[in-house]
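Appendix C reproduces, verbatim, an entry submitted by the partner laboratory led by Prof. M.T., so that reviewers can inspect both the input and the predicted structure.
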Amino acid sequence: MLGWISTDLGQWLNAAFLVGLGLVLASLAARSVSRLIGDRTSRHHSAVVRRLVFYGVVLLFVVAALREAGFSLDVVLGAAGILTVALGFASQTSASNIISGLFLLMEKPFEIGDVIEVDATTGEVVAIDLLSVKLRTPDNLFVRIPNETLIKTRVVNRSRFPIRRLDLTVGIAYAEDVERVETLLLKLAEEEPVCLEEPKPFVLVTAFGPSSVDVQFSFWVPKDKVLDGRSSIMVAIKKMLDREGIEIPFPHTSIYAGSHSEPFRVQLLSPDTKPNKEILDVDKEG
C-alpha cells in the first residue's frame, strides 16, 4: 500500500515538475523569439508570435505531465473535446470574440501603439489579446473593448499615416477684406514651424454665418504634433488678427418689437434701487 502511494505521489510530483519546467521554458522561448523577430516585424505581430510560442510550449509540457501522471492521452483528448463543445455552447460571446480577433489579426486595421477612435472612446492601443483590445486614453484611463465590438463598429485609426490635416474655422466680420485674411493666414502657416510645407496649406470661405464670414484654414502637421499644433496655431491666429486690426465678431442680440407693436420701457436698476412703480404705471396707462 505504501509503495503504491509512494509511486503515485512520485508521478504527481514529476507531473508538477514538468508543468513548472514548461512555464519557465515557455517564457524563455517566447522572449527569445520576440527579440529575434522584434526588428523585422511590427509590435503587433511580435506580440502575437510571442503568445503562440508561449502557449504552444506550455501545451506540450501539460500533455507530457498528464501522461506522466498516468492519464491516457486518448481519454484526455476525448475529455478535452467534450469540454470544448460544452464551453462553446456556454460561451458563445467568447467564441465570437475569438473569431473576431482572428479577423482583426488578418485585416490589421491597427497595431500596438496606434491611436484609434471607437465610438466615443479615443486611446492608444496597448494590447491586442484573444478576446479584447486594450486602450489607454489621453487622461490615462484603461479601456477594454471586446473584439466583437471592433468588428461591428466604425474604427478610426488616427495615427495610421505620418501626417494629419487640421481644419480650423475662423470667423471674421463682414466688413473685413477676406482676401487679405487669406494672405495673412497662409503667411502665418509659413512662419509657424509646426506647419508642414508639403502638402500646402489652403484657405476656403465656407459659410456666411449669422454674424461672421466663416473661413476654413487647413494645414498639415506631424501626427505627434496634433494637439500642440492646434493650440499653438489658434493662439497665433488670435494674435495675428488683433495685431492687424481684423475684427473677430461674436453673436449680438437685438430686440425689435416691430412697427405695429407698442414700444416697451427698459430700465437698468442698481441692487439698492427700488423699481419706480409710478413711472411704470404711468407708461402702462399711456
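Residues 123 and 139 are 9 Å apart (CA to CA). Additional entries are available on request from the coordinating office.
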